[in-house]
Amino acid sequence: MINIEINDELVERLSALEHDQWCAWATDLSLSEKLSRKRVKRWHESMKPYEELANETQEFDRVW
Question: pLDDT-derived band of residue 32, with 50, 70 and 90 as boundaries?
Fold first, then answer.
């Protein structure tokens, strides 16, 4: 069994990775599906590097 220590650094790295994956998914979906302008605008506001997101928005990636 592998013993992995879950610490704040690991959580942040995984959260940033999750955010990158979400950005790719949301970009692809927004180009291929008919989404409301409101949704696309809301998503676009979060399509930036994880480090530039407000802490409140980063928390979504942490708990996901």
Answer: confident
Domain ranges for the chain: 35-64
Q: Comparing C-alpha atoms, which of 26, 24, 23, 27 is closest to residue 53?
A: 23
Q: Cα(37)–Cα(19) distance, rounded to whole angstroms?
A: 21
**Which of 57, 38, 63 lies closest to 23 in space, CA to CA?**
57
Mean pLDDT of 37-56: 94
For residue 1, what is the DSSP state? -
Q: Which amino acid is at 11?
A: V
Q: What residue has token string 């980063």?
A: 58
Residue 48 confidence (pLDDT) above 90 = yes
Beta-carbon-side half-sphere exposure of residue 22 (alpha carbons within 13 Å): 20
